[in-house]
Write a structure and sequence with these properties.
The chain is α/β, with parallel strands linked by helices and 210 residues long. The protein has one domain: Schlafen, AAA domain (Methyltransferase, Cobalt-precorrin-4 Transmethylase, Domain 2, 2-Layer Sandwich), CATH 3.30.950.30. The protein contains 6 helices and 9 strands, in the order βαβαβββααββββαα. The protein has a 5-stranded mixed beta sheet. A two-stranded antiparallel ribbon has the order 4-5. A two-stranded antiparallel ribbon has the order 6-9. Helix 2 crosses helix 4. The longest helix has 25 residues. The relative contact order is 0.17.
């Protein structure tokens, strides 16, 4: 199933297209069929899942040169090669734990684009589970600060950032379990909502309005 973007979601996605600049939380792919892009998409999905807030991949923006991007949109023929089920099945062949990806169809200035929404990992970081084209089994991929790319951590800071995110999730889960068995009162040690929580709530609202 492909989600047709609501007006509010379209405005948000079109604003990302109009940036003409890749960032940690969004990545552009040139218009091409699913079979041509699927390995690149799988790698980017794993990296985004290991990044706070996750991210979105927008298909239909061409990179002319370093940091120079042109929105070209997609042909209907190419867009029809993408299926949410196919994307999830293929990406989750390489991603462990698996990812709940969403495929969104939207238009900007009458041009057709697709977006793949990648959620932040739920409990533990996502690891590449098998070798593939530009994919290495046992590797953790991230989207680092600075240059927009997908690669393994290169230093202690990048690795620590990922571990800290995982620790925060483990702490929240521990508190919830202690409440469930009555060890903690409902409001005891209640962690404040994070930006990630608020982002998930906003994204959920957008999908519900669709």
């Amino acid at each position: 199933m492909t989600t047709v973007a609501s007006e509010q979601m379209t405005d948000h996605l079109c604003s990302l297209v109009a940036l003409l600049r890749e960032e940690r939380g969004h990545d552009y792919k040139q218009s091409a069929s699913w079979n041509q892009l699927k390995y690149k998409i799988a790698k980017t999905c794993i990296g985004m899942a290991n990044t706070r807030y996750g991210g979105v991949i927008i298909i239909g923006v061409k990179q002319e040169a370093d940091d120079i991007f042109t929105p070209t949109g997609m042909s209907e023929v190419e867009a029809q090669t993408y299926s949410e089920d196919d994307i999830r099945t293929f990406v989750n062949t390489y991603a462990d734990p698996s990812l709940n990806l969403n495929l969104v169809r939207f238009k900007c200035d009458e041009q057709l684009f697709l977006a793949i929404e990648v959620p932040e990992f739920t409990d533990i970081p996502v690891i590449c589970s098998r070798d593939g084209r530009d994919l290495t089994a046992g590797t953790v991929y991230i989207r680092p600060m600075g240059k927009a790319e997908t690669r393994p951590p290169r230093d202690a800071y990048e690795l620590r950032e990922l571990l800290n995110l995982s620790t925060q999730k483990s702490t929240r889960r521990f508190i919830e379990e202690m409440r469930a068995v009555g060890v903690l009162a409902p409001t005891s040690l209640d962690p404040a909502p994070t930006d990630s929580d608020r982002f998930d709530q906003q994204l959920g609202s957008l999908l519900e309005k669709d």
